[in-house]
């Protein structure tokens, strides 16, 4: 299973979780971990960074004084059932954050994850990565925001225990978070990017 471009770092040697965490804590770049392999994370283009910053700022503003808090890609998420360690673009945690062995590094309980899609990662983010994220018991919303066109895919966990998809591609519409009870205008998400100027 390929995680990101470039793919495997440190060759194809298998690492334990403890070895990965030791390497990562000393590293100057971020790496994901999955079933013994360590994967290098590539940098992001300007539009990706702008969109991520817009969304994070919107969350910080709209969640002020509420029990939920946004975290940027500096926060590492760990999923014990499948071993994945990863850095989502944005995570939302409601209530007290839970971390691996109370280490304050590896969060376990996001209610929502937002990934901004890049051409090199969009297939993984839509497919295999979403399957891995679904092993998070607290996860209720997974949002994919395209960085090459005005398009958002919103997956949410419905009352019947199934994941549903809603697609949004018009600037005049809003993205509504069902479990956090806030909404963003699509134009706010893409504000300042070249996509609004095309």
List keywords for this structure.
disordered N terminus; six-stranded mixed beta sheet; three-stranded antiparallel beta sheet; 21% helix; alpha+beta; 198 residues
Could you describe the 3D structure shown?
- This protein is of the alpha+beta class and 198 residues long.
- The chain is built from 5 helices and 14 strands.
- A 6-stranded mixed sheet has the order 4-7-9-10-11-12. The chain has a 3-stranded antiparallel sheet with strand order 1-3-2, covered by helices on one side. A 3-stranded mixed sheet has the order 6-5-8, with no helix packed on it.
- A hairpin with a 4-residue loop joins strand 5 and strand 6.
Short description:
The protein is an alpha+beta fold and 198 residues long. It has helices spanning 17-26, 46-62, 122-126, 128-133, 186-189; strands spanning 8-9, 31-34, 37-40, 68-71, 76-79, 84-86, 90-94, 106-107, 112-117, 141-146, 152-157, 163-168, 174-177, 182-185.
Layout of helices and strands, plus pairs?
Elements: E1 8-9, H1 17-26, E2 31-34, E3 37-40, H2 46-62, E4 68-71, E5 76-79, E6 84-86, E7 90-94, E8 106-107, E9 112-117, H3 122-126, H4 128-133, E10 141-146, E11 152-157, E12 163-168, E13 174-177, E14 182-185, H5 186-189
Parallel strand pairs: 5-8, 9-10
Antiparallel strand pairs: 1-3, 2-3, 4-7, 5-6, 7-9, 10-11, 11-12, 13-14
| Straight-line N-to-C gap | 36 Å
Percentage of helical residues? 10-25%
Q: pLDDT below 50 for ≥5 consecutive residues: which ranges?
A: 1-6
**Number of discrete helical segments:** 5
Q: Biggest sheet, open or closed, and with what strands and sense?
A: 6 strands, mixed
SSE topology string: EHEEHEEEEEEHHEEEEEH
Radius of gyration: 17 Å
Q: What is the overall silhouette?
A: globular
Tell me the strand order in the biggest sheet: 4-7-9-10-11-12
Number of strands: 14
**Fraction of residues in β-strands:** 25-35%
Structural class: alpha+beta
Give the mean pLDDT: 91
């Amino acid at each position: 299973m390929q995680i990101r471009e470039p793919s495997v770092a440190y060759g194809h040697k298998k690492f334990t979780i403890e070895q990965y965490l030791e390497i990562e804590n000393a590293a100057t770049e971020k790496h994901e971990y999955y079933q013994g392999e360590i994967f290098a994370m590539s940098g992001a283009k300007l539009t990706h960074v702008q969109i991520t910053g817009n969304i994070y700022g919107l969350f910080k503003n709209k969640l002020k004084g509420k029990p939920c808090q946004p975290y940027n890609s500096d926060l590492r998420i760990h999923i014990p059932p499948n071993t994945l360690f990863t850095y989502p673009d944005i995570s939302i945690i409601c209530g007290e954050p839970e971390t691996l062995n109370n280490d304050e590094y590896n969060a376990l309980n996001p209610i929502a994850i937002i990934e901004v899609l890049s051409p090199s990662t969009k297939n993984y983010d839509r497919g295999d990565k979403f399957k891995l994220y679904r092993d998070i018991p607290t996860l209720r919303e997974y949002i994919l925001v395209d960085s090459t066109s005005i398009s958002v895919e919103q997956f949410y966990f419905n009352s019947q225990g199934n994941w549903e998809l809603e697609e949004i591609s018009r600037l005049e519409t809003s993205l509504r978070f069902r479990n956090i009870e806030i909404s963003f205008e699509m134009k706010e998400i893409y504000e300042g990017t070249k996509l609004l100027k095309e």
